[in-house]
């Protein structure tokens, strides 16, 4: 179980680095307890929607008969890792600023949820689905509980460091490399765990 918690923490951290930068933007403009609370609710709402979509897709993929075929899903996070490293293409910060400029702070719950889903939702689902497929039921439950705790930790951390000069810029500067390394590492883990390369080599030779 401890290993599952550690792996889930590393995985969520990879997806959360960019979200942390986005949340810093929201907290930099928020000033009341209600606005802070709405950011928490919006982040939970957006994150849970992404997790539920990932769970549904993982459930469907569980009916794939050959385990080594599921290992091919590891190519998805590897692709995202290379893409982030080369292009840094997640434009969540720009989207957050655009939504805030358009809607202000009056609809923070919906705005935070929307930006969370729209910004890097495809990346998150692309990471969560292959990982969820590789878990048994008990490890999946532990992973989901860990995710729910880490969502709070993410938002709380963003709230505390939002007003510290230079922190947001530093996180933004290195976020792409942190995400790239973890994405590629996760992809390799999924491929190895499902013995995909070994099975393909056995077919060929």
TrEMBL record:
Superkingdom: Bacteria
Residues annotated as transmembrane: 6-27, 39-62, 68-87, 108-133, 139-162, 174-192
Keyword Membrane assigned: yes
Record keyword RNA-binding present: no
Keywords (A to Z) from UniProt: Membrane, Transmembrane, Transmembrane helix
NCBIfam families: cad (TIGR00779)
This protein's name: CadD family cadmium resistance transporter
Source organism: Macrococcus carouselicus
